[in-house]
Design brief:
Layout lengths: L4 E5 L5 E3 L4 E3 L1 H9 L4 E5 L7 H15 L6 H10 L5 H31 L2 H20 L1 H7 L3 H7 L10 H4 L3 H7 L10
Parallel strand pairs: 1-4
Antiparallel strand pairs: 1-2, 2-3
Helix pairs in contact: 1-2
Length: 191
């Protein structure tokens, strides 16, 4: 059995959904499209395929009802494309563009869901850390704090981080440096 849902259009312009044995409206067909249900609309008498016609009706109603997607100029350009040698190319281009648009929308929804599913405090902490790092990089705050660190703190934390020659103050050994630099004579007086 086919997964394609069959909808019949009768002369009285009513649509009959054979899957649920009930008449449906264009709004119901729109819902099928939004839900990703594959369907096929045929004329009940002639069996002609009316799927595109029904979809164009839905688009027409959507365009009239709210904020239109198709501007007047875009519609005029599409009409001008009919019958030309580029019609097939335009069809392919529009289909691929819509596929790409749908893929981008899907990815955006996934990223949004991942963001919303994460622990809010962890996310806020990560954002704050990134913002602080960017602010420090732009303002040079992290660099100035390293310059003002005392030499004793720099020795302990090994955060000197500069290849510049030592200043005159840094060249004079401290008393602790002098005591460390004395040569210890081994027992027995040699050395």
């Amino acid at each position: 059995m086919s997964d394609l849902r069959l909808i019949k259009k009768y002369p009285n312009r009513r649509l009959y959904d054979t899957a649920i044995s009930s008449y449906i409206t264009l709004a119901d067909v729109k819902r099928l499209v939004l839900d990703g249900v594959a369907f096929h609309v045929v004329d009940a008498k002639t069996q002609d395929d009316l799927t595109r016609t029904i979809l164009l009706q839905i688009i027409s109603e959507e365009e009239e009802g709210g904020e239109p997607i198709f501007s007047t100029e875009l519609l005029a350009q599409i009409i001008r494309s009919y019958g030309g040698n580029m019609q097939t190319l335009l069809t392919s281009y529009l289909e691929k563009s819509m596929d790409m648009w749908s893929d981008q929308q899907r990815r955006f929804r996934e990223h949004t869901r991942e963001f919303l599913d994460a622990n809010p405090m962890t996310v806020m902490s990560q954002i704050a850390e990134r913002n602080l790092a960017m602010w420090q990089a732009m303002s040079g705050v992290g660099q100035r704090s390293n310059e003002t660190t005392s030499s004793a703190d720099a020795e302990e934390s090994d955060v000197a981080g500069s290849d510049a020659p030592p200043s005159a103050d840094e060249q004079q050994p401290s008393s602790s440096d002098a005591s460390r630099s004395r040569i210890k004579k081994p027992a027995g007086g040699k050395g």
